[in-house]
Amino acid sequence: MTTHPFDKLNISDTSVLINTRRSVCPGCNRSSKNFCPKCNLPLDHSPPSIHLPIPVDIYRHPGECHGKTTSTHAKLVAPTRVKIYIADLEGASSDTELMSRYPDPSRVLLLFPSTSAVPLTQIKSSSFDRLIVLDGTWKQAKAMTKRLSQVGFRHVKIESHETLFWRYQQFDRTFLATIEAIYWFYREYFDAYLAHGCNENIVKQYSGEYDNMLFYFKHNWELIQLFYKSNPKKSFTHRHIDGAAYIQYDDKNTELTL
């Protein structure tokens, strides 16, 4: 029996996305399927809803293609707790906006694996109330982080996880897609702060509270798998870190490590 890498996750049925039609976005009047990547609006379906314990602001580099980025997925499933800004964070105007938006930057965590970054287990939950995520290529994200170095955000990192992303990248499998990084942050947030609550002797088990963060990601992964399995003469890009092994043709599959 084929093992699905998302089998352990509590993700809503994605078949609704297969049955949706291309629709005109009420925000920009462009036709899209499932959602508008420009306006971050769902089309012809109601996405699952997630309540995030702290809000997240996503800064998407202007050079990042709207149709390829996965950060939109977060906005679709948690619209009231996710904000997306299109900015490269360069220039005096960006500095002014950041100071106005974050009057106390010490209470904001920036998700980036810098040398000063620490895991959530080393941060008190009462010391922060917002997360910032950078959306772009590794080169773009590093440049954006450098521009933020004087703002005063504290850097946080997640544990090492392997990506299931289908896009080519030149780094190893621990370099995640944006939505994967966001998902793992909240998974680790649960383990660090919510699993024990007020009583250290009682452990609350994680039951999929944030799994639907990967709702659209799972759907896209399934579409790619189906396409190549249905077209065996076509080969998946050899430039991908996993190459031909990315398409799961047989039972030798790798589950998502939880």
TrEMBL record:
GO terms for cellular component: nucleus. GO terms for molecular function: tRNA-uridine aminocarboxypropyltransferase activity. Belongs to the TDD superfamily. DTWD1 family. This is tRNA-uridine aminocarboxypropyltransferase 1. GO terms for biological process: tRNA processing. It comes from the Eukaryota. Catalyzes the formation of 3-(3-amino-3-carboxypropyl)uridine (acp3U) at position 20 in the D-loop of several cytoplasmic tRNAs (acp3U(20)). InterPro entries: DTW (IPR005636), tRNA_Mod/Golgi_Maint (IPR051521). Keywords: Nucleus, S-adenosyl-L-methionine, Transferase, tRNA processing. It catalyses: a uridine in tRNA + S-adenosyl-L-methionine = a 3-[(3S)-3-amino-3-carboxypropyl]uridine in tRNA + S-methyl-5'-thioadenosine + H(+). It is an enzyme of class 2 (transferase). It is found in: Nucleus. The keyword Protein transport does not apply. It comes from Batrachochytrium dendrobatidis (strain JAM81 / FGSC 10211). PANTHER family: NATURAL KILLER CELL-SPECIFIC ANTIGEN KLIP1, TRNA-URIDINE AMINOCARBOXYPROPYLTRANSFERASE 1. Its EC number is 2.5.1.25. The lineage of its organism: Eukaryota, Fungi, Fungi incertae sedis, Chytridiomycota, Chytridiomycota incertae sedis. Residues 32-229 form the DTW domain. Its main location: nucleus.
